[in-house]
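Researcher: Checking consistency across runs. Here is GH18 domain-containing protein again:
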Amino acid sequence: MFCVSVAVIISCSGVPSGNASNMRISSWMVYWDMDRGQQEYHKIGGKIQSISYFAAYFDERNQLFIPQELMTAQKNIKKEKTGTSYLTIVNDKKTGHGKNSLKDLDVLRGVFKDEYSLEHHVHDIIELAEKNNYNGIEIDYEQVWKDPELQKKFLHFLEILYTQSSQKGLKLRVDLEPATPFADPYPLGPQYVVMMYNLYGTHSGPGPKANEPFIVRVSQGMALLPGHTSAAFATGGCVWEDGNNGRLISEQDAVSLAEEQRAKPERDTASQCLHFEYMKEGHQYVVWYADRQTLNAWIHLMAVYGHTDVSIWRLGGNLQIERLNERGGGT
């Protein structure tokens, strides 16, 4: 359970805090929530060392493209920032039927099918980043660990991408799911970002996106990764109807819902998340979500265990985002 004080944070095992004030912070901005994302960036931009623009993905012909909303926002922010701007590449595919195929492994099997295809894919990624004035690349290819052969090709791809992107002066980040086998032979060079969320979510019943035991377990596994790592935490939360059918919501949405239903959120000590319940039209709804106190507790916990870099998913729909990584309790 978290033990938070105004001056310091001490884990319940008695381990003293690291220096969270030295924590490097990165964040994502997503193409479907650009207006709110940009508004929050203007509030917190001075605290952010890098920003990842989410995301380029594949069209019907398996060609990478950047959504127009992302291109516009990146140009606007680029004028006023000096940190690293990463172009995030995801293995989603535009189907042409109004819905994207998410975390598509077939599209990766296509681009990794042989050495020529893999090299061509690396070239396309670097060209897309350079053409659109990014100085970093972020790879977010998920669920590759379900296919052992694809897993080997993915690690080979990272090695080639790092070598060639470095020659172009581009930084490289790689996003990893919390259940990823961290002991695999990852190439040294990229920064590896581990998603410390979705402990509970749309795939499960009600609960927090992360709690202390989950964060500690995953952070200990991260020690197997080479080089400098980052822990990614998620803002917002989820609302479940009758114990399932979860859907993601922002902090702003959760606060508005609590006010509308006259519910009083309570803070969970194991996760520092807020939660509340209400009944509507014969259905029970349960809401769990993070606020700035939650995020600050998670950030300070990472400092306790010696980590110096966190990434925040994501800008948009947050309250008091400008108070991120500040000491002290209260909401």
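Researcher: Does this match what you'd expect to see?
Model: One thing to look at in this run: Residues 119 and 160 are 8 Å apart (CA to CA).
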